[in-house]
Model the fold of this input.
Amino acid sequence: MILTFTSPFEREPGIVAWLLKQSYAELVASDPKHWELELENWEQSDHSVFENPRTVGACTFLSWANTDLVGLFCFDPRPKPAYGVIGHNCILPQFRGQGFGKQQILEILRRFRETGIRQAKVSTNDHPFFVPARRMYTTCGFREVKRVPWDCDPKQNMIHYEMEIGPRQQKMNGNSTQKVRHEK
Ligand SMILES: CC(C)(COP(=O)(O)OP(=O)(O)OC[C@H]1O[C@@H](n2cnc3c(N)ncnc32)[C@H](O)[C@@H]1OP(=O)(O)O)[C@@H](O)C(=O)NCCC(=O)NCCS
Done:
């Protein structure tokens, strides 16, 4: 199924934090000591979206499979044209494993390419919870460039990925027919 993407402003403030909390609930439950600290960051992300509709809010999208809200993604294009950074991206647990996470990443890459951004960067963590995320990034064409201990727990590592965005990737990923509705 092909996802559609909408602005978050069709929904009430709180929707971004809710999606993030649902998507990371299993991780927080498995390691509350380190990951409960993120709850505040997710609330903050929600405030940023709704307080900055022309900047943060304009780079945040809800993803829909027909009428089901399945996930969200955001990105930061400010370092353009050198690179853009993929931010939060998640799919609600009950909708995983159907290619939706990958569609979201391909949609961000399409937007980067359209605005002339030459490279995409994204980071994740080496906790086992993020195995699907790591797989998703490599299958989309990202290569790992660096692992560094995570500030909140040096036993866990942050993994940084990069990907060149050029005509060759355009052909490989070629997903330019993605539907977008009600963009503001
Ligand atoms: C990461 C996430 C967005 C993936 O969403 P998804 O819709 O389930 O992913 P997809 O179905 O598009 O699968 C993407 C790739 O990951 C692989 N994958 C998915 N679930 C997997 C799993 N449990 N174990 C191993 N690989 C998995 C798929 O096989 C696919 O690779 P392929 O095309 O080579 O077969 C989702 O698991 C999620 O929301 N996780 C929690 C939040 C998160 O980690 N976000 C990323 C932040 S860094």
